[in-house]
Amino acid sequence: MSKENFDLAIQNLKNKNINAAIKLFEKILKEDPNHLQSNFILGTVYAQNNNFEKAYNFLDKAIQIKPFFLEAHNNLGLLNMEQGNLKNATECFEKVININPNYSDAYNNLGMTLLKSGNKKNAKKKFEKAIEINQKHFQAKLNLGVLYIELKNSELAEKLINESIDINPKFLPSHINLIQLYEKLNEEEKLKKAINNAEVNLKNIPLIKLYKGKLLYRTGNFSEAINILESISFGSPQLILESTRCSTLAKSYDQLKKCSEAFKCFKKSNEIHIEINANKKNKNNFLKLINERKNFIQNFNIKEWTTPKTINDKLDPIFLIGFPRSGTTLLDTILRCHPSINVLEEMPIIENIIYDIRKKTNRDLNKLKTISENFLIELRNSYYDTRKKYIEKEDLNKTYIDKMPLNIIFVGEILRIFPNAKFILALRHPCDCVLSSFMQTFKLNDAMTNFLDLKDAANLYDSVMDLWTKYLKVFSINFYSVKYEDVVSEFDKTIGSILEFLELPWSDNVLNFHETAKKRGFINTPSYNQVIEPIYNKSVGKWKLYEKEMSSVHPILDPWIKKFNY
Fold first, then answer.
1. 184-209 pLDDT tens trace
2. Are 216 and 230 in contact (CB under 8 A)?
3. For residues 330 and 531, what is the distance between their CA atoms, to the nearest angstrom?
4. What angle do CA 204, 177, 201 make, to 5 degrees?
5. Rounded CA separation 527/403 (Å)
6. What Å distances lie between residue 431 and 121, 186, 385, 535, 551, CA to CA?
7. In this structure, are strands 318-322 and 422-427 parallel, antiparallel, or unpaired?
8. Percent of the chain with pLDDT over 90
9. 3-state secondary structure of 300
10. Potential cystine with 458: which of 192, 335, 553, 555 (Cβ 3.0-4.6 Å)?
11. Are β-strands 399-403 and 341-345 bridged in parallel, bridged antiparallel, or unpaired?
């Protein structure tokens, strides 16, 4: 009877009648609690359906019945990894390897566990071992390829992921990772081929259609993009994909100047992000940082600050700051083409310094005036040491620019450490800045969460610029402000003035910035697909197309429009 029930249960699993299969396995175990395969399969099925407590119990029972049951140890390891119990997962996979040193899946899974633990070096070794044992291990090749993406080695990543697809053309994750790689590298021809190949091998997959819609948008086929994107949708637990669909749809409508439809889609995309991140990110945390600095600067007396006598032999750094979407990425792309300039793109260098200051002062900015000269020198050295990690080979003849737009709020602390620092301030029409921030898909943190609502974005702009204005009143800041609109309309004159501020000669290299950008590989900014384009003026004054939607934030932004002479 048990054999008949077992065969029927397996058939139900094949037909995806999960509940019927579970009942049959449980019936078998009622008659024979030590039926090995029923315990093992039930544990695996419950794990796949997120019933982790039952999964643990059945897999553990299978191991009790057969202590050297490789598959049970392996699946228990996967279950622990899924639950975040990385130490237990590691132990499970190591047991499998001890029992059978040629079990390639265990090496692959151990590699994934090590990667989740942040141990990239050993993870790489485990993936390589899995491939050494089994040259056809497409998952290990994919995982190693994805690791190489993290290590910024796009050539090896591309090679390994393509090999994974060649071995198993029906494995969706391999196709998606290759598509994402080409998308990030701005390799449009390869991207098109990868999407077509995925469509041939995997029919009618909404996720592939999503990427095809994104490609059609990038290549200017806006109506086709809309047709594809309107034909699909993603529900829970794929809300992040639904947000991407909505934002791409919004940008396609925007290009066709169907502004009402575009704004609705942008709004829907942002609302999904709010839902997903409701308990993870808090927009008020960043506003609190700004208000702390406003309160501090209100009663500030610069005469109370002592300047360190012992100064490094390095020049004080240069910072590229501004409100997000004000043109900092465009300036970064242009300036890095100059042979004497290296731009560090959105690296957490100042963030680390601010953390050290907070720790020393217990978040009391008033204590900045009493911190010791030794600590100030320590902070300077820490900045340069951290910066060096993001520079391939430091060249003392190069001018280094630290680009992180919202470092604008930390100008006070920066000047405490580097009194002679230079700042390039990127400006853009406040309405364009705020609207573009609302329309942009950022990697969310407390600061970026303010851009999910148009009024919140306008309030943040007001708060940031108010703090900058207060800084200008109390500090003698060596800065040069650059308007995005001037870069677009008077390129040579505007870039020439920036180079003059940096005490550097003109270089014709800056004229071909968009060609250089195509060769850059990975670009750490949401604007990565825009910087490879030549200068265009279609983004200047775009807010006027959304006058109706922008009317609610004009009272907040109008004073800044006047102040910056727009």
1. 998 999 999 999 999 999 999 999 99
2. no
3. 6
4. 35
5. 14
6. 46, 29, 39, 20, 10
7. parallel
8. 78
9. coil
10. 553
11. parallel
Token pair of 469 as six digits: 């204005």
Taking the C-alpha atoms of residue 356 and residue 350, their distance in angstroms, rounded to an integer, is 10
Q: Which residues contact 445 (CB under 8 A, 6 or more apart)?
A: 281, 286
Mean per-residue pLDDT, 171-185: 96
For 399-448, how does the pLDDT look when each residue is reduced to its tens digit (9 = 90+)? 999 999 999 999 999 999 999 999 999 999 999 999 999 999 888 889 99
* DSSP letters spanning 306-367: PPPSS--SSPPPEEEEESTTSSHHHHHHHHTTSTTEEEEES-SHHHHHHHHHHHHHTT-GGG
Q: Alpha-carbon distance 228 to 245, whole Å? A: 10
Q: DSSP string of 115-154?
A: HHTT-HHHHHHHHHHHHHH-TT-HHHHHHHHHHHHHTT-H
Q: What Cα–Cα distance (Å) separates residue 283 from each residue in 130, 290, 460?
A: 44, 12, 10
**From residue 105, how far is each of 7, 52, 83, 100, 469 by CA, in Å?**
27, 21, 19, 11, 59
pLDDT at 472 over 70: yes
Q: Please return the burial class of 333, using the count of CB atoms within 10 Å of its CB with bins 0-12, 13-18 and 19+.
A: buried
Locus of tokens 């090679």: 159
**Coil, strand, or helix at residue 369?**
helix
Amino acid at 45: V
Share of the chain above pLDDT 70, in %: 95
The confidence score (pLDDT) of residue 200 equals 96
Strand partners, 320: 403, 424
Task: Go through 48-80 and write b for each residue having 16 or more CB atoms within 10 A of its CB, e for each that does not.
Answer: eeebeeebbebbebbbebeeebbebbbbbbbbb
Buried b vs exposed e over 203-225: b needs ≥16 C-beta within 10 Å? eebebbbbbbbbbbbbeeebebb
Say how far apart CA 140 and CA 161 lie, in whole Å: 10
Q: What is the DSSP string of 191-249?
A: HHHHHHHHHHHSTT-HHHHHHHHHHHHHTT-HHHHHHHHHT----TT-HHHHHHHHHHH
